[in-house]
Each structure stands twice: as structure tokens, then as C-alpha cells.
Design goal:
Strands 1, 2, 3, 4, 7, 8, 9, 10 and 11 form a 9-stranded antiparallel beta sheet that branches. By secondary structure, the protein is mainly β. The protein has one domain. It has helices spanning about 1-10, 135-145; strands spanning about 15-20, 35-45, 50-65, 70-85, 85-90, 105, 110-120, 150, 155-170, 175-185, 190-200.
């Protein structure tokens, strides 16, 4: 979970901006949907070796479903654009058994789509909450579910699933243009797979 922990979930290296806005449910209603929120984040992205390789601008839609036992099932759906930083390519690590490169140059662009899903316990969802910048995973859970809430994807748990796909645009002199980070579980139960790369060499 080297890349996974470093960016979309915890956003340890968050950069410029993270703003919160409630999503509109449509149908002409002006009130925010009680179980849905949208977060805008600009942050550094880390590769499978733990190194920063890109800056992502993410639109994250969070859907919340309350279960009968009082816990909440949440799904974070991300759509993003990225701009690469010079250094080690995101797929360059021993854990990546597929074909991959070694390095990436700065200024290459592309898109990312992905999701993470898990369970929040020990809190109460407040759709009208706000999230101070930068609004990473830990900050979001605390802001919208309370300071005692726990998210299964941030603990030792089998109750977590994620999948992130990166595609660089064509005609940028890249050796590899597609990278995927997917897996399930968290902490000591993490099973993660890396495939491909975004690389110039």
C-alpha cells in the first residue's frame, strides 16, 4: 500500500489545495444530498516505491450508506488529472512483477480514475460538515464522522478494497503509458498488486 497510503487515502504529501463542497442530488433540489459529498484535492502522488512521481488534481465523490448496526459503508470515487515530476517512475519497485520502466521526466500529463471502499465505525455522519485544507483521508473521516470514528482502510482490516488506473496521454515520448494499483485489505491484511508504469525510460 505504498502508493495507496501516500496519496488518495491519507494524502500525506498534500500540496496546494483541498476544498469541500456538498454534491447536489439533482432533480431541481437545492439542498445537498444527505449521503453524498464532493471533495476537491490537489496533492502529490507516490509510486509503489514510496517516491513522489506526480501532482494530482482530484475530484472525489464520497457516497455514504448507513448500515443497521450503526456503522457506515463508504465509497470514494476519484477522477483526476496528473502532471508528472522528474524521478523514479511509479511502477518501478520489486513488488511490480509486470513489465515496467525505471524513470519519468517532468511535465507528462494524463488521467486517473479509481475508488476505495470500506466501513466507518464509532462515529456519526454529518453531511453539513466542512473539511479544512488539506482534506486528506484521515481529516475527512474526522470532520464528517467525528474524532472517534475509525475507517477500516486505515487500520489492520480485511474490510477494504481499492483500484486506481492511470493513463498518460499519447505522443509524449513515453515507454509505458498505463499504471494500475489495486488490492484489498489494509495494514497487516493488505494484498496489493501493481501493473505497468508511466515511464520515459
Amino acid at each position: 500500500m505504498k502508493r495507496f497510503i501516500a496519496l488518495p487515502v491519507i494524502a500525506v504529501a498534500a500540496l496546494a489545495l483541498a476544498a469541500f463542497a456538498l454534491a447536489n442530488p439533482g432533480h431541481g433540489h437545492k439542498q445537498p444530498h444527505p449521503n453524498k459529498a464532493t471533495i476537491m484535492i490537489t496533492t502529490a502522488d507516490n509510486g509503489c516505491a514510496g517516491n513522489p512521481w506526480a501532482t494530482d488534481t482530484i475530484k472525489r465523490t464520497v457516497k455514504v450508506h448507513k448500515k443497521k448496526d450503526g456503522s457506515y459503508r463508504i465509497r470514494e470515487q476519484d477522477k483526476a488529472t496528473f502532471v508528472t515530476l522528474a524521478g523514479v517512475s511509479p511502477g518501478n519497485c520489486p513488488e511490480n512483477k509486470s513489465k515496467h520502466g525505471t524513470a519519468i521526466t517532468a511535465g507528462k500529463v494524463g488521467t486517473m480514475r479509481g475508488y476505495i471502499t470500506g466501513t466507518v465505525t464509532g462515529g456519526t455522519f454529518n453531511p453539513n460538515a466542512t473539511c479544512a485544507s488539506p482534506c486528506g483521508q484521515t481529516a475527512f473521516i474526522a470532520a464528517f464522522f467525528g474524532p472517534t470514528a475509525q475507517f477500516s482502510c486505515l487500520t489492520n482490516s480485511k474490510d477494504c478494497k481499492f483500484n486506481y488506473d492511470y493513463h498518460a496521454k499519447k505522443n509524449q515520448g513515453l515507454l509505458y503509458r498505463h499504471w494500475r494499483d489495486k488490492g484489498h485489505g489494509a495494514g497487516s491484511f493488505l494484498k496489493e498488486t501493481f501493473r505497468g508504469d508511466i515511464a520515459t525510460a
